[in-house]
Amino acid sequence: MATMAFSDIVRKTEQTINKTAVKFASKRGWVPAISGYTGYGSKNSIRIFGRVLAVDPESPSAKQPGAHPDDRPEQRGWRQFLTVQLTDFPFTVTIGDKEVHAQTDANGYIDISMDNPGLEPGWHTAKISIQGAQDATADVMVADSDRPVGIISDIDDTILVTWLPRAMVAAWNSWVKRTNTRMPVDGMAAFFRRIQEAHPEAPVFYLSTGAWNTYRTLNRFVRQHGFPRGPMLLTDWGPTDTGLFRSGMEHKKVQLRNLIIDYPNMTWILVGDDGQHDPLIFSEVVKEHPTQIKMVAVRTLTPREHVLSHGTVAPLAEVAKSARAAVPFIHGESGHELIEEFDKHPNN
C-alpha cells in the first residue's frame, strides 16, 4: 500500500511538472509537433502509434514533420527523454479511405486500433493531423494473416548490446552514450536473414521494454545494421496506478498475446536473450499457445555479460522443461551459433 501510495504521489508529481512545462512552453511560443511510429495490421484491423509534443519552433521537429525533438544521430541519449507531452490533444488519423478522430493519452501518446479499410499486405502510410502543426506520417505494416510463420524479437541484449537488467549500466548506455555508438549483437542480423531465407516474407515484430522516446534511435539502428524492417512495440517508462514503473514482463506478455490473437493462423519464432526474463515469458506463452509457437531462440549472454547485466554468472531465467519439450528450443552466444542450431532442425 505504501508503494502504491508513493507511486500515486510520483505520478501526480510527474503530471504537475508536465502541466507546468506546457504552460512554460506556451509562453515561450512553442508549438505542437507529431511523431509517428511504426504500426501494424492484419486483414481485419490495424494499429497506429504516435505522440504529440510541444517543441521549440526552431527545432527539427517543428520544421520537419515526424522528426523528434533534437533528433540527431550523434546526440547524447538523455536528450531523447526531454519532452513536453500534450495530453488529451485532439488528432485525426487518415489511412486508406478511413478517418478516425481521437485524443492523446495522459502522456501524449497516440495508440488507436481500427478496422482495416481494405489495405492489402505490405507497407502503407497513415497521415496524422493536429491543429497548429504540419501533418506527420506513420508507417503501417499490414502482414499477410495467412503467412505460415512470423518472428517476434526482443531488442535489448538480443540485437542491441545494452546489459539492460543492470540499471546503472543500462542507464549509462541509454542516457549518456551517444546514440550512434550503440553496438549490435554479433551475428544476429545474419540470423534473421537465415530465418527469412527459410520462411520468405515472414513479418518481423520487435518487442521491448524500452521507452518510446528511443524509437528514432532504435529504428535508425535497425536500418544501419541490416536487421529486417518491422514494427516496434515499446512502452512508456514512469509511474502507474500500481507501481513506480511499468512492468516490463507484463508489457511483453500483453503484446505477445495481442499478436497471437491478431494473427491466429500464424506460428511464431520467438527470439530473445537470457539476461532478462525472456525465457520465462516465452515458456508461459508456449504453455498457453503450444500450437502457435514454432520455435524459441535464445541468445545466451556470456559469463562476463551476465556479470555486467545482473551481477551473477547465471541466467536470470530458464525455459521450463515442459516448454522445451513442446517446441524446438535453440540457444547460442551469437547469431552465428544460433544459425548453426537453427539449421540442425529439419522442420525449422
Automatic annotation (TrEMBL):
Name of the protein in its database record: Phosphatidate phosphatase APP1 catalytic domain-containing protein
Source organism per UniProt: Corynebacterium casei LMG S-19264
UniProt-listed InterPro entries: APP1_cat, HAD_sf, Mg2+_PAP
Domain spans labelled Phosphatidate phosphatase APP1 catalytic: 149-299
PANTHER family: PHOSPHATIDATE PHOSPHATASE APP1
Lineage: superkingdom: Bacteria
Pfam families xref list: APP1_cat
